[in-house]
Amino acid sequence: MCVCFRHAQKLIEQVRQWESSVIQNQQGLNNIVDIFSVAKGQECAEASFVAINALGRIYSALWTKGLLNRNKDSNDSAQEKVGDWLRTNYNMYVDLLRGILKCKEAPMQIGALRLLIQMLEKEGHSAHRLANVYSFPNSSLLAVVESVLDNANASEHLLRTFAESYINSYDDIRYYFYRNVVKLASPEYDPFKRNSGRKNSNAPGSDTRKNRESRRFADGTPAFVKNAFSIMNLVRVMPKTDIMDFTDLCVKLPDEIGETEPSVQSPSAHKRAFSEAWLALLRLPLTPDTYKQVLLVMHKRIIPHMTDPKALMDFLSNSYDAGGPTSLLALNGLFTLITDYNLNYPQFYEKLYTLLDRNLFHVKYRARFFRLLEIFLASSHLPAYLIAAFAKRISRLALSAPPSGIVIAIPMVYNLLKAHPSCMVLIHRMPGYDSETGEQKVTEEADIFVPTENDPAKCMALQSSLWEMETLQHHYYANIATLANIFNEPFHKPSFVLEDFLDHTYATFFESDTARKPRKAPALATQPPTSLFRPGDAIGDFMAY
Fold first, then answer.
1. pLDDT tens by residue, 359-406
2. What is the C-alpha separation between 371 and 5, in angstroms, rounded?
3. Distances from the Cα of 502 to the Cαs of 26, 159, 409, 467, 508, in angstroms?
4. Rounded Cα distance, 137 and 124, in Å
5. How wide is the angle at C-alpha 298 spanned by C-alphas 144 and 158, nearest 5°?
6. How far is 298 from 321, CA to CA, in rounded Å?
7. Is 346 helix (H, G, I), strand (E, B) or coil?
8. What is the pLDDT of residue 202?
9. By CB distance 3.0 to 4.6 Å, which of 27, 301, 382, 533 could disulfide with 540?
10. Cα 355 from Cα 368, distance rounded (Å)
C-alpha cells in the first residue's frame, strides 16, 4: 500500500512538472504525450485524474495563445506542422473526455462535461480574437451533445448539470443545443461525417461501422430519446417573440457585429430552433414512459412556445386515437389547440364518449380527465342527447366504481343536469313505464339504454333514466348514499365544485371517518372471557385431554 501511494504521489508530481514546462515554454510541448499516457492509464486513478485536469489547463492555455488555431496565411511550415500535431493530440484528448462521459460514475461524467464546455469556450474566444467575428464552435458542441444524449449510462446528475449549468445559463449553448438535437434526430445525420478529417476515419471496417451507426441514429435509440427529453424538459428559459436581451453568452460577441446580426441574437431564431427540436424528437419512436411524460407537459411547456402549434396536430390526434391512458393524456394538448388555435377535430365528442369505460375510475389520470370533461360539456349549445349520453354512461360506470370514483360521478351528473334542464327527464322517468301514458309495461329490458353503443346519438340515453343514482342511494358507504340522495331534492342548490371531489382515496375516507367524533358512544357488551375456549368446544375438550 505504501509503495503504491509513493508511486502515485511521485507520478502526480511528475505530471505537474510536465504541465508547468508545457505552459511556460513551447519547447516542452512534447511532454503532452507523457501526460496523455498517464491520463489514459488504469494503474493509478488519482494520477489519471490529475493528468486529465492538467491537460485541460494546458489546452486552455494553448487556445489562449492561438497555437491551436489554423492559420491559412502562415508560410512557416514548421509552425504549421506543430499546429497540426497539437490539434491531433487535442482531438485525442476530447475523445478521451467523451469516453469518460459514457462511464458509469456520475462524478467522472460531470468532470468530463465541465472540461469539454471549458474547451468549447476557449475555442470560441480564440476564434473571436483571431478574426474579430462571432464564431460559435458548434461542431465541438455537437460532439458533446451527441456523447451526452446517445449515452445509455448517462446519469440523472449529468443530464441535470448539462441543462441547469449550461443550457439554462447560456443563450448560445441553448440555441445551438436545439439545432444539434434536430441534426442528431435527422435520418440524414452521419455521425462519422464530423470526424471525416481524422486519420482513423478510413480504418479497416470503418464503412461497416459507419453504416451501422448511421442506421442507429436514424432509428433513434431509446437512450437518445430518453436523454433528449429529460434535458429539454429541464430547460426553464423559454423563447419569446418580443425583444430579448441575449447577453448571457458562453462565447462573447465582438465589439462590432456588423450589418448581419448573428442568429443567436434573434428571438425568432430561438423560437424556431425550439420548435424544430421538439418536432424532431416527437418524430422518433418514443418509449411508453417518455410518450406519457411528453403528453403531460405538452399543453404548458411546448405548445405555448411553438412557432406554429398546429404542427403538433397530427401527433396529438394520433395520441388521442390511441386509446387508453394515452388518449386521456392527449386531451390537455388537444383541448389547447381546439380552444386557442381553432383546431377542428371531427367527431371529437364521439371519441371522448368512448374514453368512458370501466377502467376510467381506476387509472392514475382520472382527476385530469374529469377536469377537462367538465370543461368540454359546459357549453349550453350541446344537444340534449349528447349530455344525456355522458350522464347515463357515467352513472352506469359508477355502479362498479370504487367509492373514490363514485364521489366524482355523482357531482358530475348533478352538474350536467343542472346546466342542461332538458335532460331532467332522466330522473323523472321510471324504467318499465310508458313515457306517454305512464302505464307500467313488462319488457325483457326495462332500460333501453345501449351501453355497448359508442355513438352517443344511437345509445338511446335520452329515452332512458338514471335509475343508477337511486341504486347508489343504498350504497354500503353511508357518505355516498347521503350524497346520492341529492337527486331526491329540488335542484335549488348551486352546482358542485368538482375539484373538491377529485382527489379522494380510501386513505382520505378512512382519515375523515376516524377523525369524526361520534355523537354518542356506541353500545358495547363487555364481558371479559374467563378461559381461552368455551366449555363444550371440541378444541377445548381436546386440549383438556
1. 889 888 899 899 999 999 988 889 999 999 999 999 999 999 999 999
2. 65
3. 72, 34, 10, 23, 11
4. 6
5. 25
6. 17
7. coil
8. 43
9. 533
10. 13
